[in-house]
């Protein structure tokens, strides 16, 4: 059974409590939370105070996607703010093994995200330590972009690597996910689908989440 993780990035930032309450009622499994620093990606979103504020209104697992440089500095702070799953970018971590251990030491699930140009084989020597691999299916930084088709190939490669190394890592897909590609993504091997604009810009987000969940 696959998981659905709506992304807060496309919610109405003036009404985040309403977004949380909608998600609480929905079939969403996780709440995907995109943190951007304006350095690793060409956009700035929000940080720990916002996560802390919405934590008290949400019953869902907080899946925090860090698009920031030097994530090691803030691991404990994100735990305190309410993160359950913490994902860092491969491209932002010089000492990735240390970063992953630090996330786990704080009692969170540890994920690594790959930009569209990064080959999954770079994870060969870390995959057994990971709870999650997040494949970016758009270039990180913005919601509402179109899906990159090469993602299916990356899922296949990653699935092989996970089996080969006996890893328990989940495969999460982030960017441009809609009902038009969700089934193929799951059939190819995705375990978690992030959806931002497709959920929050729809007329009935609860229904849209239900449709993504029941494919
Ligand atoms: C992009 C973010 C995504 C974004 C996805 O950098 O990591 O999580 O919210 O948005 P959609 O689903 O609209 O592509
Ligand atoms: Zn994301």
Describe what this molecule looks like in 3D:
The chain is an alpha/beta fold. The protein has one domain (3-213): Alpha-Beta Barrel (TIM Barrel). It has helices at 16-25, 48-55, 75-81, 96-105, 151-164, 179-188, 197-200, 205-213; strands spanning 3-6, 30-36, 61-67, 85-89, 109-114, 132-136, 170-174, 192-195. The protein has an eight-stranded parallel β-sheet with strand order 1-8-7-6-5-4-3-2. The termini are close together. The mean pLDDT is 98. The site of D-xylitol-5-phosphate has 22 residues, from strand 2, strand 8 and helix 7.
The separation of the N and C termini measures: 10 Å
Spatially, the strands of the biggest sheet line up as 1-8-7-6-5-4-3-2
Q: Which runs of at least 5 residues are low in confidence (pLDDT < 50)? A: none
Order of helix and strand elements from N to C terminus: EHEHEHEHEEHEHEHH
Calculate the mean pLDDT score and round it. 98
Using the 3D structure, state the CATH architecture. Alpha-Beta Barrel
Structural class: alpha/beta
Query: What ions, cofactors and ligands are bound?
Result: D-xylitol-5-phosphate, zinc ion
The CATH class is identified as: Alpha Beta
Question: Outline, from the CA principal axes?
Answer: globular
Tally of individual helices: 8
CATH superfamily: Aldolase class I
Task: Please count the beta strands (DSSP E, at least 2 residues each).
Answer: 8
Please give the radius of gyration in angstroms.
16 Å
Q: Which topology does CATH recognise?
A: TIM Barrel
Helix content: 25-40%
């Amino acid at each position: 059974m696959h998981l659905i993780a709506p992304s807060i990035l496309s919610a109405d930032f003036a009404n985040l409590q309403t977004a949380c309450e909608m998600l609480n009622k929905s079939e969403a499994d996780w709440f995907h939370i995109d943190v951007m620093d304006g350095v690793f990606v060409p956009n700035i979103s929000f940080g720990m105070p916002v996560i802390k504020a919405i934590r008290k209104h949400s019953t869902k697992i907080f899946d925090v996607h860090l698009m920031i440089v030097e994530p090691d500095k803030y691991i404990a702070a994100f735990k305190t703010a309410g993160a359950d799953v913490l994902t860092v970018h491969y491209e932002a971590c010089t000492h990735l093994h240390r970063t992953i251990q630090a996330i786990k030491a704080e009692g969170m699930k540890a994920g690594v995200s790959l930009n569209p140009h990064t080959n999954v084989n770079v994870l060969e020597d870390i995959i057994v330590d990971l709870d999650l691999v997040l494949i970016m299916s758009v270039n990180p930084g913005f919601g509402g972009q179109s899906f990159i088709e090469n993602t299916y190939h990356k899922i296949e490669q990653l699935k092989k690597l996970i089996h080969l190394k006996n890893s328990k890592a989940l495969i999460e897909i982030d960017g441009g996910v809609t009902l038009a590609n969700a089934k193929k993504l799951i059939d190819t091997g995705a375990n978690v689908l992030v959806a931002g604009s497709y959920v929050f810009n729809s007329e009935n987000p609860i229904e849209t989440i239900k449709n993504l969940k029941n494919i």
